[in-house]
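User: Structure tokens for both sequences below?

Assistant:
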Amino acid sequence: MSKSLWSALLSALLVFSSAFVAAEDPAADPAEQIRQFNASLNYQTGDVAVAAAHAVLHLGAGFRYLPPTDARRVLEQLWGNPPDDSVLGMLVPGDLEVTDERSWAVVLTYSDDGYVSDEDAAKINYSDMLKTMQEQTAAANEEREKAGYGAVTLVGWASPPRYDADKKKLHWAKELVFSGADQHTVNYDIRALGRGGYLSMNAVGGIGDLSYIQQGMGRVLNMVEFDAGYRYADFNDDTDKVAGYGLAALVGGVAAAKMGLFAKLGVLLLSLKKFAVLLIIGIAALLKRVFGKKDGNAG
């Protein structure tokens, strides 16, 4: 799409959005509506228990936690991801709002597939794996487009996979391009291994903010502590369930069958504010759903 056509379309959508808000409430101020949305989010700080993962997050001053309901409002209503009831919450940098231009967040989910052996850690060829993942991502685009989310290209590693054998945490970042986007996206992933499964922490943001996100995820790596009895070292080979895959599957996405569409296909959709056209449509729908008049037709 040419820049002139893009600008014309964006301008038209901005007019549409303003008209939509005015029709819902002639006195409405879009900036005030966004402020109210941010104020409606119920952040938590300090030590936060994630019961479903048998873990605690020791949040520092740099992050806040959103519980599942609010996390899904941001992911699905504001950012346009498919519905996903496996979301256990979201970490948001303390100096940003989810509607800020440079905002990014960390989505939490948990797999109880069992103990994931790390015996293959030193044997994985991540260069070969990347080629396979690129092919799989391209092959999945037909499913994406049928679902209305557009095509995605996996450019490469934004940060190659690394495994901390002492902390039992695996992390890596992918650089992606979404169709219609004017910038690349980074999906930064952490897998914290426990006795009965693993906690997934998936960050999404703009590739231009990679260094900032890397710094933040470095802090996130140290936040997770599994409860006593649920740590990786507590594994009992005689009684405990063992996952049918190792570390390579966690990076390659083979083990994502319980997750939503984008998790299955290996990515999270970047905040719609990074995709200007979709933003206008998404914000209009968001304002109607969250702040529309409660007159029986409100969602």
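Moving on to the next sequence.
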Amino acid sequence: MEFFLVQLLNGISYGLLLFMLSSGLTIVFSLMGVLNFAHASFYMLGAYFAYQVSTVLGFWAGLVVAPLLVGLVGMAVERYGLRQVHKHGHVAELLFTFGLAYLIEEAVHLIWGRSALEYRVPPELDGPIFQIMGSPYPMYRTFMMLVSVAMLVSIWLALTRTRIGLVIQAALSHPETVEALGHNVPRVFMLVFGGGAALAGLAGVIGGAAFVTDPGMAVSVGPIVFVIVVVGGMGSLAGAFVASLLIGCLQNFSISLDWSLAGLFSWFGWMVGPDTPLWSLWNVKLSQAAPVLPYLLMVLMLIFRPKGLMGTREG
């Protein structure tokens, strides 16, 4: 029971971090139709900016300043990059963001080097917050969950209960009408893209301190973000939330279990030995297969429900 509760909480906290990262990509795609390959690079920038700010002003200043800086970078990318290639179609946008990811990675190498940085959890959040059957649970994991939930509530309120949220949603389906009412639609899209980048930057601030801050962090989480967007449904924020929790729990439980198909067969009295066909496959442990499970889930989702769990828009 202790193992289950600890892994469940770890899975939820990791899933909420993934949602914090994927929510920006989901919002940008749902409102602008842009699938940003450089989104995970904004996550990396958030961690590096937070580290740089924290060396001077501390962790809490980095938590506020870094997402704002990443948001400004995102707005500049949309204004001077994406907006110029938008007229050439989605392929040009994909190629642009794909190249941008490489440029950001090389810029990080040039400025901060190729080694991991000493970006750590702040002392006031370093320690247990409660115990689960005698096992201490880290305070920072709880902080990650609280920030993620607060961000989710803020996004929902901003999009559904504020005037700017209504303008953003209207600009998607009726841009000419919104422009006729006096709103600057290109500026709205620039703010949306910058907001999506800022959300990725916020995830970088939180995730960089919890795990590792190095130039490979964008590559490590980038594919998972796209898996979440596909599984949850292209453009569905609720779907991204459910998919993030699902994949977070799936990965946390799977890496901790040494189950195999051979063991499952033995429960039914079917003995698997070296002479059994595909013996190596039957002995692959769940912990060994953990990295590919999210992609297997995505493949199954594309086969049986191409629009995802809650998707309403096709990519």
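User: Anything stand out in the second?

Assistant: Strands lie at 128-132, 135-138.
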